[in-house]
Amino acid sequence: MLRYRVTHEGRRVEHIRFVGLVRDFPKVNDARREADRLLMRINEEAQDARIHFDALAEHYLKADFGEDAVRPKSLTTVPIVRHYVRDYLITQWAHRIADDIKPLEAQRWLKSLHDDEGLAWTTVSKIKGLMHRVYKIGRLHELVTKNPVQHVETRTKTDYRAIVITPAQTLTILESLTNPLHYALVLTCAATALRSSEILSLRWSEIGW
Question: What CATH number corresponds to the domain at position 93?
Answer without folding.
Answer: 1.10.150
